[in-house]
């Protein structure tokens, strides 16, 4: 893999890390927009299999063969640069975006609204044409469900280790499911601020429990999602599209603390301008990614032709 592509994956990881810290934006959406989503899902599935085979085979003396084979299937050339970029992205977002959400909530949500709205074009284009009636129905149902979920009022829950473990297991699903924001789920149950505080203050006890919950959540969820993408790809993408559209409710700039939606009010021009900027950023990312894929496909075709011609 070329150095430029590795750097690109680090930057993609940074964007995913930032997204995971922002309520309303899904890291899975950013992964989908930047073209690394399916390789991430496949790699996560192989890692889960590695652990499963290691736990079952090694104690029985069957060796490392099956686990080692799964480990070699991981797209390390993508996963490692993404992880390198995700950590600083998450830390930077935790420091900078939290005060922006507190001091300029409407403008910040406007920017995020534009980002997420433009990203919905990615799963739609992946489905292609024609859309079947069942897929349209799945999109609508998923959109309504996401709309209702993102309208739930804030809750306040004590950050007991068991609660943190369960919340992390659920929230981490958002890392691999476009349209669902892990930070937003934490915000809904009242654990967003304690988690951000733990990140900023390096509360290793809290973070260790949270990390354990993430591992449990990924182990339970990622294999199901991988199976759905392999066997029901179009329907799964249709549901993802509906979830992304429905979750835009959480990013509507004009809403109360109880998440009641209001008509456009103050700062309309600045909010609309920021939404357009957000949409333009995602559109540029999508165009750049498609050009990269076309260039890679062209290079592969030329390489295949040259190899065949020499022979």
From TrEMBL:
Entry keyword set: Membrane, Transmembrane, Transmembrane helix
Coiled-coil region(s): none
InterPro entries membership: VCA0040-like
Pfam families: VCA0040-like
Transmembrane segments: 78-97, 109-127, 133-152, 164-192, 204-225, 267-288
Keyword NAD appears in the UniProt entry: no
Protein name as catalogued: DUF368 domain-containing protein
């Amino acid at each position: 893999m070329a150095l430029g592509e590795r750097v690109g994956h680090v930057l993609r990881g940074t964007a995913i890390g930032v997204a995971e810290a922002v309520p309303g934006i899904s890291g899975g959406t950013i992964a989908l927009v930047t073209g690394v989503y399916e390789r991430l899902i496949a790699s996560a599935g192989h890692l889960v299999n590695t652990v499963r085979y290691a736990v079952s085979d090694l104690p029985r003396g069957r060796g490392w063969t099956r686990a080692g084979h799964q480990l070699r299937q991981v797209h390390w050339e993508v996963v490692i640069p993404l992880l390198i970029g995700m950590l600083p992205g998450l830390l930077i977002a935790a420091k900078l975006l939290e005060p922006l959400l507190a001091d300029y909530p409407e403008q910040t949500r406007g920017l995020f609204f534009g980002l997420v709205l433009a990203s919905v074009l990615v799963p739609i284009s992946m489905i292609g044409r024609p859309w079947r009636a069942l897929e349209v129905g799945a999109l609508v149902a998923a959109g309504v469900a996401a709309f209702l979920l993102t309208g739930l009022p804030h809750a306040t829950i004590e950050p007991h280790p068991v609660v943190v473990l369960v919340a992390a297991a659920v929230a981490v699903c958002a890392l691999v499911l476009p349209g669902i924001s892990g930070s937003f789920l934490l915000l809904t149950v009242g654990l967003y601020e304690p988690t951000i505080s733990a990140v900023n203050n390096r509360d290793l006890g809290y973070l260790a429990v949270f990390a354990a919950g993430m591992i449990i959540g990924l182990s339970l969820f990622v294999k199901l999602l991988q199976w759905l993408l392999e066997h029901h790809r179009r329907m799964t993408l249709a549901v993802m599209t509906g979830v992304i559209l429905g979750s835009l409710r959480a990013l509507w700039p004009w809403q109360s603390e109880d998440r009641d939606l209001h008509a456009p009010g103050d700062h309309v021009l600045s909010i609309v301008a920021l939404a357009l900027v957000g949409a333009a950023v995602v559109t540029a990312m999508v165009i750049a990614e498609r050009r990269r894929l076309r260039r890679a496909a062209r290079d592969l075709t030329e390489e295949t032709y040259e190899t065949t011609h020499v022979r």
